[in-house]
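A student in our group prepared the protein record below, which I am reviewing. What it holds is a sequence and that sequence's fold in token form. My question to you is simply how this chain folds and whether the tokens agree. Do not assume that whoever made the record got everything right. I have pasted the whole thing underneath without changing anything:
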Amino acid sequence: MPQAALFLLLFFFMQSRGFLSKVLSRSSNLFFTVLSSYLPPQRVQSSGSSIFDDMKKISYAFLFSLFFFISPANADSLSSLDIERASLRSLSFTATIETPKPNGRMSKMEMKYYYLSPNKFRSELKMGIEGNLLTVSDGTFIWSWQNRTKKLYRQARNKLIENFKLFGPFDPITAFSAPDISLSELFELKSSLPMRNSERKLILTPKKNVGSYDRIELIIEDNGKKPVQATVWKKNILTAKITFTNYIKNPQLSNSLFVFEPPRGIRINELR
């Protein structure tokens, strides 16, 4: 299952916001080509691109969202989580994503997300004057389309998963959307702590060093039905905060949401 990745992608924030960053140079999947820069070098069959590095935090929103089925009874067992997630048919939610700016304030973006078992998802990210980013997994490919820059990226989903298994959970959206990937092999659940207001905090760490984060803290309703908020940390520094609303488990979703038709005349940047 993919962040982010998800989801995947994205990437039109200005340098002053800390978003405009590195070109597609070191990512082993589409979502993180648009989102990250800590993987081995990728070959991109294109004349170049201008994807924004720091948007990798967005993929964590997808990772957190798919924890909705955790309950106090199974929160200490990722093996139980693997069993539960296989029963997920569909999901939709809205998220507010906040990332720190150099001046100490927080940048905010709004995202809509849809998931359809076993391997399809769609994210719609709105970033104001920087434009919108659409990411679609149709089960075979993962597509990322930037409407402002008119850039289109594509990667075979099976290749993404191969890289994912080799390098660890660098792309949470892939990890959590693919039932054939065992979470218990990739993550450790360090603690499950009860909180006030019938909430619970889960602390999750990757078993392999993925470079971009070392701890995820997720607050869920204690009945295990919905995520409330998630934070991503690296060396005790907050790198992203995601707040969830309009969270719906197993909604009726049209398959048309997960179909992407490349715009006519647009070059497809193939990621290996």
